[in-house]
Design brief:
Length: 244
């Protein structure tokens, strides 16, 4: 088998995950692209460098059994799994008094349990290989909190605690686990915010601009590279200084 790295990227159909996928494909990696919208994934695959070598998996990251099947089939196809990028996520914002139980459950299931599901199923393969790198996309909201996002903040703080714990459990197997905490990045997720809110945000960002998906993708590329071999359990803020 040729020695190209195999990477799973969740939430690859748009936004930050799509940019992570194209950046890693440029690096020569073979990708397993995961999201619910298969059509969008196929569109992306066709745009990628070396498009025919990548695979598409329509999967809900919150579904334990579906994730198990995806991971198994990525391994069967490629004989190894080098990298996992847990990027899929949603928001269902509201103040606590108005938050419905399903808003809480959906955000925790997709954002936090989704990270557990993929990590849990990938780790046995990485442990056997005695190598692997995992990057989890958290948020600065998980570090600083945000009114109207208690469900999202809880999920993203949870990812940071999970990242540190798995880094401690599997460091001895040659596996690194790190998180990235993006600030305000221009994607569908933030497009729906009112202009008034966006203007307020800009004022509090020292670099005076919103981030772009490539700002996150570059840091993922670094954390998966040999240059980051001695980094584990870390959370890197990529927020233009919004959270200092
Ligand atoms: N944008 C920001 O400012 C910002 C800031 C901090 C952190 N983040 C985090 O960065 C990550 C990407 O965000 P984004 O801004 O790129 O969001 P986005 O444009 O809304 O994209 C979200 C991605 O997650 C996938 N996804 C959602 N639910 C899923 C599920 N149940 N199963 C599988 N895939 C699912 C979506 O694909 P399908 O709909 O096709 O399933 C899509 O590919 C998220 O974890 C987000 O919390 C974003």
């Amino acid at each position: 088998m040729e020695d190209r790295k195999i990477a799973i990227v969740t939430g690859a159909s748009r936004g930050i995950g799509k940019r992570i996928a194209s950046t890693l494909a440029e690096e020569g990696m073979i990708l397993a692209l995961v999201a619910r919208n298969e059509e969008k994934l196929v569109e992306l695959k066709n745009e990628l460098h070396d498009s025919e070598i990548h695979s598409v998996y329509s999967c809900d990251v919150s579904n334990f059994n579906e994730v198990e099947k995806v991971v198994k089939s990525v391994f069967e196809k490629n004989g190894k799994i080098d990298y996992l990028v847990n990027n899929a996520g949603i928001t269902r914002d509201s103040l606590l008094l108005r938050m419905r139980e399903e808003d809480w459950d959906n955000v925790i299931s997709i954002n936090l349990k989704g990270v557990f599901n993929f990590t849990k199923h990938v780790i046995p393969y990485m442990a056997r290989q005695r190598s692997g790198k995992i990057v989890n996309i958290s948020s600065i909201v998980g570090l600083m909190g945000n009114a109207g996002q208690s469900n999202y903040a809880a999920s993203k703080s949870g990812i940071i605690g999970f990242t540190k714990s798995i880094a401690k459990e599997y460091g001895s197997k040659g596996i690194t686990v790190n998180a990235i905490a993006p600030g305000f990045i221009e994607t569908d997720m933030t497009a729906k915010l009112p202009d008034r809110v966006k203007e307020e945000y800009i004022k509090s960002i020292p670099l005076k601009r919103f981030g772009k998906p490539e700002d996150i993708a570059k840091v993922v590329k670094f954390l998966l590279s040999d240059d980051a071999d001695y980094i584990t359990g870390e959370t890197i803020n990529v927020s233009g200084g919004l959270y200092i």
